[in-house]
């Protein structure tokens, strides 16, 4: 029965079959290559996602370390400020007692009998001494409080910078 089909049709059918097989083979190869590329792209995306996750974790860890260090420094500075305030209050109390004692001494009459006539002028000088002493003590207290506060702020700032600068 094969003899009934002319040989040229047989060749055309054979060529068509070969072309169809070649087309199917090329399509299969193309599909296999596309799948291979897709897997490679998927792997690369996974690697990038993992690298991004690790970088984010490192950044968060560093941020947390810095924040913890700064919080510790802030607490330490607050403690120092409280201690300075307590010291200033104690110094003010001592200064008040000293001013009261100077005022008391300046109001006391002179014990020397030879200067009894000049008691009025001596009283003014004693008041002046008490006033000058009081003002000097107040100014010294203010300067000491300012200097201590500035020193504590500078130390806290420096420690914060060092804590953040560390890698």
TrEMBL record:
InterPro entries assigned: DUF2514
Keyword terms: Coiled coil
Sections of the chain in a coiled coil: 34-108
Name of the featured protein: DUF2514 family protein
């Amino acid at each position: 029965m094969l003899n009934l089909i002319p040989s040229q049709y047989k060749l055309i059918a054979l060529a068509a079959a070969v072309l169809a097989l070649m087309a199917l083979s090329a399509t299969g190869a193309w599909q296999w290559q596309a799948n291979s590329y897709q897997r490679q792209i998927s792997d690369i995306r996974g690697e990038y996602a993992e690298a991004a996750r690790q970088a984010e974790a490192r950044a968060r860890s560093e941020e947390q370390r810095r924040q913890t260090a700064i919080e510790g420094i802030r607490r330490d500075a607050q403690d120092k400020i409280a201690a300075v305030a307590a010291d200033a209050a104690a110094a003010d109390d001592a200064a008040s007692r000293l001013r009261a004692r100077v005022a008391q001494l300046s109001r006391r009459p002179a014990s020397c009998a030879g200067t009894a006539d000049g008691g009025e002028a001596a009283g003014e000088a004693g008041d002046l001494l008490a006033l000058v002493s009081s003002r000097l003590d107040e100014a010294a207290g203010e300067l000491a409080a300012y200097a201590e506060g500035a020193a504590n702020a500078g130390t806290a700032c420096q420690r914060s910078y060092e804590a953040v600068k560390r890698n």
